[in-house]
Write a structure and sequence with these properties.
The chain has 227 residues and is an alpha/beta fold. Helix content is 43%, strand content 17%. It contains ten helices and seven strands. The chain has helices spanning 2-11, 32-37, 43-53, 74-84, 89-103, 121-127, 131-143, 166-173, 182-185, 201-212, and strands at residues 60-68, 113-116, 146-147, 152-154, 177-179, 189-197, 217-225. The strands form two sheets. A five-stranded parallel sheet has the order 1-7-6-2-3. The chain has a two-stranded antiparallel ribbon with strand order 4-5. Helix 10 (201-212) links the parallel strand 6 and strand 7 (217-225). Helix 5 packs parallel to helix 7 (131-143). The longest helix is centred in the middle third of the chain and has 15 residues, at 89-103.
Length: 227
């Protein structure tokens, strides 16, 4: 197997999406040098972001993130490749790291389901996949829960939120989600998975929809947290 991997790496070299250097055989999707440069989200930052984005709304009961998003640095290039360059395996690789972190989180009691934030069918057609599903798949490989991508859907096509203020973001995302299999959601403790959480409005609206359809407790986790 090792010789076969070397053979494929010679003819079809795997490239790090951040630095564009060739990956070593033991490196999966991202080189170790670039991973070391990404700012981790420590417990102090997580507490601050939870209080800022989620606490007053009373929907998300617990939250964690793997990294802090920094503009024009390694993680931005990696996430861009994951979302727009058909490199969805990055999501699964980083999802495994997020899963490792979740295994050590004391603020995440018994969980029943992992649900990735749904992507509208038009965006999914353009992109070909939902990157949050692959992140969730990586997380689930560590937590061994039920990964549910069929009980919910996004029914509203939303514009990119980055250029909007808080009120515009809330209006833009309001009513964006629907539960189509209530029996799978009712009474369950659910972990929502997203790629990057900025204002927290998308995750909060999705969580609100889940709770209105009988979910017990909602938690959230993301690859990155951004201002």
């Amino acid at each position: 197997m090792h010789l076969l991997s070397e053979f494929f790496d010679f003819f079809l070299p795997r490239i790090c999406p951040s630095c564009k250097n060739k990956l070593e055989l033991n490196e999966e999707c991202i080189c170790s040098n670039c991973l070391k440069k990404i700012l981790p989200a420590d417990s102090t930052r997580i507490r601050f972001e939870f209080q800022k984005k989620f606490l007053t709304k009373g929907i998300i009961s617990g939250f964690t993130s793997l990294f802090v998003f920094e503009k024009d640095k390694e993680l931005q290039r990696i996430i861009h490749a994951m979302k727009y360059e058909n490199n969805f395996r990055i999501g699964e690789t980083l999802g495994k790291l997020l899963g490792d972190k979740l295994q050590n989180e004391i603020n995440f009691p018994h969980l029943d389901l992992i649900i990735p934030v749904p992507l509208h069918h038009l965006k999914k057609s353009e992109r070909g996949y939902n990157q949050s599903f692959y992140i969730a798949k990586g997380v689930d490989s560590k937590l061994s829960l039920v990964l549910d991508k069929r009980s919910t859907k996004r029914i509203k096509y939303t514009e990119t939120l980055t250029s909007m203020n808080i009120r515009e973001r809330e209006k833009n995302i309001s009513g964006a989600f629907k539960v189509n299999r209530i029996h799978n959601i009712s009474g369950k403790n659910i972990l929502i998975i997203d790629d990057v959480i900025t204002s927290g409005n998308t995750v909060s609206e999705f969580g609100r929809t889940l709770k209105e359809n009988g979910a017990a407790t909602i938690y959230a986790a993301s690859l990155a947290i951004a201002d």
